[in-house]
TrEMBL record:
InterPro entries: AAA+_ATPase (IPR003593), ABC_transporter-like_ATP-bd (IPR003439), ABC_transptr_haem_export_CcmA (IPR005895), P-loop_NTPase (IPR027417). The keyword Membrane applies. Residues 44-226 form the ABC transporter domain. It comes from Sphingomonas gei. PROSITE patterns: ABC_TRANSPORTER_2 (PS50893). Keywords: ATP-binding, Cytochrome c-type biogenesis, Membrane, Nucleotide-binding, Translocase, Transport. This is Heme ABC exporter ATP-binding protein CcmA. One of its GO terms (biological process) is cytochrome complex assembly. Residues 1-24 are annotated as: Disordered. One of its GO terms (molecular function) is transmembrane transporter activity. Coiled coil: none annotated. The lineage of its organism: Bacteria, Pseudomonadati, Pseudomonadota, Alphaproteobacteria, Sphingomonadales. NCBIfam families: ccmA. Gene3D superfamilies: P-loop containing nucleotide triphosphate hydrolases (3.40.50.300). The gene is ccmA. The keyword Repeat does not apply.
Amino acid sequence: MVRHRRDPRGFGRPYRRARGGPSFRAVRRRHARAGRFRGVSAGLSFADVACVRGGRSLFEGLRFALGPGEAALVTGPNGAGKSSLIRIAAGLLPPATGRVAGDGARALLAETAALDPELGLAAAVRFWARIDGHAAAVEAALATVGLEKLAQVPVRLLSTGQRRRAGFARVIASGAPVWLLDEPANGLDAGSVRTLETLIADHRSGGGIALVATHLPIALPHAQEVRL
């Protein structure tokens, strides 16, 4: 029952930053500004959505709607369907019943960063940013997550946390108003989680939308809660 309420395989050794280096960012750089998505229609809604995987019903009757500046936090035990819900929102998995609607481009942060392990970090992120029409945004996105000094390091040499942040840089560089984040805090230390919270808040303050699925605590003030 769903309750809804407001409120590649790694290669080589991970790259290690120098002792005392920043865990996320040395200097806060706001990637979002008030009204960043002004004039851009953004929205995401689920209407009586059900999900069935492997013949098993994960959830049904799911309803929520998000507008500019809003967020929803998807929680629940392992196997409840959190990742499936994000995939449905991204259009990668059809709902068993119901309807998903929305306006504005969507950017997905999945379990893997989907970055070419043999490319340098900047080149790997730029591959997707170019498809999104925002190739020039890569440098700033890497700086936002504190990875600008690793721009030329092959993705395969990054640590788990660094790869997670690289995936988030790809989302930022996309310029999409709707963020779909699946377990974004995985692999991050406490300081990096706080910065993640700030990035999402900045995105929302600019009129962006965030749908976040997590089993770890993430502060999303005034977010709707979707409990599976």
